[in-house]
Amino acid sequence: MDAVSAGTGTIRLVFHDDEATPHGFVVELLRSVFGKTEREAVAFLSGIDKQGKVACGPFPASVGSVLLEAARTQIRAGGFPLLITSEAVSDCCDLCGATPARTEVRLAARTVCLCAACVRAIASVPQHEQEGEFRWACDALAWHFSGIPQSGLVTTVRQFPGHMRADVQVAINALFAAPVRFFGFHEEYRWETTTFTGLMRPGRDAPVIAPPQYHEIDIGEDAAVLCLHNGLWLCRDGELRYAAVLSLHQEPSQETAIRIEIAVPAGSAGQEVAQRCFAGLEKAVRAACSYRGKILSLEGGANYRERSRGVMVHRLPAVDREAVILPEQTLRLLDRNVRSFVKSRASLRRLGQSTRKGILLYGPPGTGKTHTIRYLSTNLPGHTTLIITAEQVAFLGVYMNLARLLQPALVVIEDVDLIARDRNEMAGPCEESLLNKLLNEMD
Known about the structure:
Strand content: 15-25%
Largest sheet: 6 strands, antiparallel
Structural class: alpha+beta
C-alpha cells in the first residue's frame, strides 16, 4: 500500500530494511517523527535488522498519514532510500505489530496494547536491564552509541600534570555537570592505563562498572577537593552523543598524569565538541585557582626520579617586619630588593626591563634564613610561594613549570649550595646535570 487516505480506520507503518540508510538516521527519524525514546528506537532498529521489516503503530488513519508524510519528507531531505509503507490493520500489538488478542499494559509512563508473546517477553527481562543498569562498561557504551559503529567513532586525548589534579577536577565538574549517565569502573591492573578502547572490550576481562572512587586533595581551604580516580561520562550535546574517560597515566620515572579521552562520532561536529571540552579544561588549568597565592611544596621522597605525589599546601602564620631579627640595614636591603621591587614591576615592564629578581641568603644555621623567607612569603600579596627542600632538588623542573603557571611566584631553594658548587667537587654527572638545570631555569 503506497498511499494512505486520511479517512477512518487503523493503519500501521512498515519500515523495510536496506543497506544504504545509516542506522543513526533511522534512530533519529523514529525519535523526531514518531516520538520514540532512544532506547525504543534502537530496539525497533534491531528488529528491522533481524526480521527485514518491522511495523510501527497502530495509528488512526488520519494520524498515520501525517506521520508517513513527515517521515518521507525527512527521508527525501536526507537523500536516503529508506522505504516506509502503510497497511490497514484491525487489531495489533503496539510492540511487535502482531494481530492476536491484545492486553493493555502500563509501560514507560504510557499505556500500550501488547500481544501475549510481548507481555511474556517483557516479564522475563531482568529489572536492572529495564531500568538501564549495566554491569560492564562495554554494555553502557554500546547502549549510548547505539546505531553508530565503532569504526564511526574517533577519540582525542589530552594529559595534564598530576599536581594540577584539583583544578582539572573542578573543570570536569563544570563541563560534565549533567551527563546522560556517569560511572566509575574497576581497574584490575593499576599499572595499565585505561583507555576508551579498553572500556569497549567485551569478554571475561571486560572492565566492570564500579562505585566511583574519590581522593580528598587538600588545597589549603576549609574543604578538600574530591578528585576522581577514574570515571566514564556518557554525554549529549544537542543530538550529538559523546563520551569522556578519566584515568591516571603512569610511566617509569615520571610524575603520574591525568588522562582525559573524549570519544565522538567522526566528523566536524564531533571534533568541535571535543575541542570545546579540552579548551575548557585547559582554561581551568591555566587559571589554577586552587593553588594560586598559597605557599606550596611537592610531596615526594628523596630520589632522582622526578616523581611527586601531589601538591602540599603550607599554612604558615604571617610574620611581621618587627618579628624579623636582622640588622636594620640588612632588612632595608631585603625590603628594597624584594617587596619594593615587586611594587615596581608594572613600571619595569613599561620600560622594557626584567621583572625577575634573585637574592641569595647566606649564613650559618640558626641566623634566621628560614624565618626571613616566611616573612617574605607571607607579605607578598598575590604571590605563590614554592619551597624546594634539599632532598627535592630532582623536582626542580616540575617546580619551575608550576612557578610559571602560578606566577607571580617566589621560588625558594633551600640549601642551594648543595647544587651550585664548584664543578671540580661534584661526585658525578647527575649533580652536574642538576647544576645545568638550575642555571637554565635562572636564565
